[in-house]
Amino acid sequence: MFMHLFSYRLKCLARDREVVFWTLIFPLILATMFYFAFDQLMGRQETFSPVRAAVVASDAYRQNIAFRQALGAISEPGEGQLIELTVTDDEREALRLLEDGAVAGVITVGDSVGLTVGQSGIEQSILKAVLDEYSHRYATVTGILRESPAIAGELIRELGQRRSYTKQISFSSAEPDTALNFFYALIAMTCLYGGFWGLRNTTDMQADLSPQGARRSAAPTHKLGVVLYDLAAALTISLAEVMVLLAYLMLVLRVSFGNESWYVLLTSLVGCIAGVSLGAFIGTYVRKSEGAKTGILIGTSMTMSFLAGLMIDTMKDMIARKAPVLSYINPAALITDAFYSLYIFESHRRFFLNIGLLLLISSSMCILSFLRLRRDRYASL
Amino acid sequence: MLVRVQNLVKRYGDLLALDHFSLEVGEGEILGLLGPNGSGKTTTINCILSLLKYDKGVIEVFGRPMAPDAYESKRNIGVVMQNVAVFQELRVDENIDYFCGMYVSDAKTRRRLVDEAIDFVGLGEFRKFYPRKLSGGLLRRLNIACGIAHKPKLIIMDEPTVAVDPQSRNKILEGIRELNRQGATVVYTSHYMEEVDQLCTRIVIMDKGKTLAAGTKEELKAMINDGETISVELYVLQPDDVAHIRQMPHVTRAEYADNHLTVHYDGGQHNLLNLLDYLRSRDLSFGRVFSEQPTLNDVFLEITGRQLRD
């Protein structure tokens, strides 16, 4: 009996092209769009180009050996090259280069080091920061030497070493990546779209919602059995769809989920349970037309996904800070966070907290739905 | 009795849908529940099937109280819903197999039953079709096949021929007779009096949730004063002739209008011969002649003062 009803239910759901589009094809399209939109953010950053600058080879510049050495060090071709330096004989030539856009700034050396820029921007800010740093250090060193010439040797040794006063403690082997959150939120949305199957199940099960429900209610099959067979079929198809999406993300788009495949599967399964339960809950408790219920389901799952960071990457963190309760009751946020904590944390504490909360929310919705579905007779049909 | 309904009361808010309605269905009957739309036929069926809550009354099927968990009784009931209750995503044979599988767990038996049901409703060449590819009539036949494939002892059919073409309707009605011949008891609701007239061995006429009359069609027709009605196309007829005809045996009414003489009888035999003999004796030439027996609509009209389809 189980296999018979389960397999036919599965056929019924899998052949519902409209719902298959929204629950499978649509997330695949979104994933592809995300991939192209966030390509730059996903570990394929532009290589840093040195900032082009001109320095006027005035007498003061030639005599300022320390400054020349400093500029030479940061403009030396190689991995650490910060500035691409052009030395001009006079200021007029340098300004012409600036005007032509050949350089971002002109460095002049007089009593102090000066910078002329044509506009403000990242390159100009870098140049200013470099020159400010030099001036600051120069003033510090000359000040110390004036006051205590005896420590000159020690000072030079100290300056030769870079010392960090903060210690980096790694909680993960992975680098934080905000773009991943979009993909995790997309999987969360797909899991919640499993609600379409839960919604369809409740419609096909209740005599007051569909003739099929009436025929099935008149049959000698226990209601709990029908609920479980249908639930199993809905979960199977929803999980299969999420698996297809995961495979596409992992194998084609190369989105990282960490190295713990079983936990990824567990998250997907629990996410699908949450989605199907959400659909069943809306299907049983919203007393509106099927179209209205579908609209409410889409609205709910999209709102949840939005709050989980589907559209704005900082949204999830903002909700976690400003309204933390929402993060704990929003299934999409919990699914997203479960995936992200798998990727970023080596400890599973936070992951299992998310999974536990998801199961709690899902079981609550399932129980409430069943209490309504088990109703054997209806007030009107 | 296969079905026994006693003093059933069902309210939808302020509307009294069933007003102490009672019904008995004996084994082997084709019982027709006849009434206009909104008379309570479908509500009665849904209460019998334990789909609807009701306010008062007793329902027994196969001698046992009917309840949602009366699985043994449900196993022997076939239901053909008023609305087509099939899955659009399953083919004809899959739909029948699915619903049959809710009653019969053995796969081999089920395969045979599905084949028989498909043959029975004449959907052999459409067995691999999806419902959306079927015409309204074929869809109704599929609806019936889904309800009767498991060979139930009691078949409840709620207006199974609504919006069906004449060919499919005849096929469906003939099928119901065949099921009955094979031993099934049928409860058939309709607001088509011709169908009930043709098909049912016993008829319950209901309106506003109450039984108006019950019996065989002959018994029902005998309840009203009207008998045969004869209509004759006549181009000339004097008032004296009409007055004479009114005096003939068993004539209750006679009118002449629009070149038609209409004569109503309350019984008697050879009324048509007697009338035509009179017209010939008066050298009155006549055209077409019609003789109509009383219908269930006449019965309904007599009892309620309204047409069945008002």
Q: Which ranges of chain A are low-confidence, i.e. pLDDT below 50, for 5 or more consecutive residues?
A: none
Q: How are the strands ordered across the major sheet of chain A?
A: 2-1-3-4
Radius of gyration of chain A: 32 Å
The main pleated sheet of chain A reads as:
4 strands, mixed
Number of helices of chain A: 17
What percent of the residues of chain A sit in helical stretches (DSSP H or I)?
Answer: 55-70%
Measure the end-to-end span of chain A.
28 Å
Q: Which percent band covers the strand fraction of chain A?
A: 5-15%
Order of helical and strand elements of chain B: EEEHEEHEHHHEHEHEEHEHEEHEH
The number of helical runs of chain B is 11
Which regions of chain B have little confidence, pLDDT < 50, spanning 5+ residues? none
Largest interface: A-B, 31 and 37 residues
What is the global morphology of chain A? Answer: elongated
Assembly context of the chains = heterodimer
Order of helices and strands of chain A: HHEHHEHEEHHHHHHHHHHHH
Number of strands of chain B: 14
Task: Give me the secondary-structure category of chain B.
Answer: alpha/beta
Overall mean confidence score, pLDDT of chain A: 86
- Taken as a percent bin, the fraction of beta residues of chain B is 25-35%
